[in-house]
Design goal:
GO terms for molecular function: iodotyrosine deiodinase activity. The chain is α+β, with helices and mostly antiparallel strands. It contains nine helices and five strands. The strands form two sheets. The protein has a three-stranded antiparallel beta sheet with strand order 1-2-5, sandwiched between helices. Strands 3-4 form a two-stranded antiparallel sheet. The radius of gyration is 20 Å and the shape is globular. The structure holds 3-iodo-tyrosine.
């Protein structure tokens, strides 16, 4: 059918285990149950224009090198670096400051392998059936397929879950406004933080794998998989497609 859009309709879909009982509406927290917040002065550094210009160029130079890399080295990466990168991603302030994310960092080889088995099994069906001929042919020049060696090889797999609502220590639920875009912004900052330390990843959104991966990783039903990032150094023989970026004039409109 013409409006068949598996990347929208299935990719992020995980309606498992949110039962009528979970949704009964009585156990949501009221804003007046939350403590009042003091407001404090805020004055981040202000740079001279010349410094601003230089910093804008430096950051562009750094992030302009970012590529999706599917060939990742098995070399170990210090855990503290990953922790700091995730701390940075968790700084993202959005959606009434609900911090609606869980970053699951997998380094255990057996668990990585189980993730690989789930992802490859579903991706094979995706490529052969669910994605459809047009999507598969649109991707052909990127030379991707359902074999995901990086899921075994990368020292870390970071699975980012959005919390569709929060659960407070007293068991009450808290609304997580704009949780998907909040977590997406946080993922963007995570990608920049990885680039900043010289690590690589590929932003994978394994279609139809969310529910199984959530159960494997024992995450609760309010958490839905948004993205899976294999993280490590690039393999010494890593290649990437020679893509060109749109020029500034194609992406900006000044009015
Ligand atoms: N999820 C599949 C397919 C895929 C989809 C897009 I859009 C890409 O940019 C690349 C791959 C996979 O990871 O192979």
């Amino acid at each position: 059918k013409a409006d068949f859009r598996p990347w929208v309709d299935q990719d992020l879909q995980d309606d498992t285990e949110i039962t009528a009982k979970d949704d009964d509406g009585n156990d949501w927290v009221d804003s007046n149950e939350e403590e009042d917040l003091p407001h404090v002065p805020y004055s981040p550094p202000r740079y001279p224009e010349e410094t601003m210009l230089q910093r804008s160029k430096d950051m562009y130079a750094l992030l302009n090198q970012r590529r999706s890399v599917r060939f990742i080295s098995p070399e170990p990466v210090p855990r503290e670096v990953i922790d700091n990168v995730i701390r940075t991603a968790g700084m993202c302030k959005f959606g009434a400051h609900t911090e609606p994310w869980t970053f699951v960092v997998v380094s255990d080889p057996e668990m990585k392998h189980q993730i690989r088995q789930i992802v490859e099994e579903e991706e094979e069906v995706n490529y052969r059936q669910r994605m459809g001929d047009k999507w598969v042919s649109d991707l052909a020049r990127l030379r991707t397929n359902w074999i995901k060696e990086y899921l075994d090889v990368a020292p870390y797999l970071v699975l980012i879950f959005k919390q569709t609502y929060g659960i407070l220590p007293n068991g009450k639920k808290k609304t997580h406004y704009y949780n998907e875009i909040s977590v997406s912004i946080s993922c963007g900052i995570l990608l920049a933080a990885l680039q900043n330390v010289g690590l690589v990843t590929v932003t994978s959104t394994p279609l139809n794998c969310g529910p199984q991966l959530r159960l494997l990783l024992k995450r609760p039903a309010n958490e839905k998989l948004l993205m899976l990032l294999p993280v490590g150094y690039p393999a010494s023989d890593a290649t990437v497609p020679d893509l060109k970026r749109k020029p500034l004039d194609d992406i900006v409109v000044h009015i």
